[in-house]
Amino acid sequence: MKPMLGILGVSAADSLHRVDPMVRSAGSLWSLLLHLALSLTLIAALIWGSIYLMKRMSGRSSTKGGRRIRVVECRFIAPKKAIYIVQIGGRTMALGVTDAHITMLTELPDLPPETETAAASNAFSKWMKKI
Prior knowledge:
With 131 residues, the protein is α+β, with helices and mostly antiparallel strands. It has two domains: 10-58; 69-119. The chain is built from three helices and six strands. A hairpin with a 4-residue loop joins strand 5 and strand 6 (102-108). The longest helix has 38 residues, at 21-58. The protein is elongated and about 90 Å long. The protein starts with a strand and ends with a helix.
């Protein structure tokens, strides 16, 4: 005769073989959480990789010699309205840009960027010497 436990009449041998469903599912819960974490990590890596590739490929041109279009400077003059100084090939142009149109304002004479940078750095060094 088996000793009885509780009022339901469950024997001690039966209670050893029966496992609470919450305890049984605890092992599978950890495996599900691990699977979820690995899946999210993989998805995040794929998103990061695709963003990296898009940034890297968006700046490339189809010419072997390098970029033919370069934005030298941009100044906003009103909301959604700006003036861009752009070098295309060997030409430097001022472009008026709005949300609906792009208009060439004028063609500018070419100025070497080294002269412009050197003049700005000399002015800055003179200002620092005054202080």
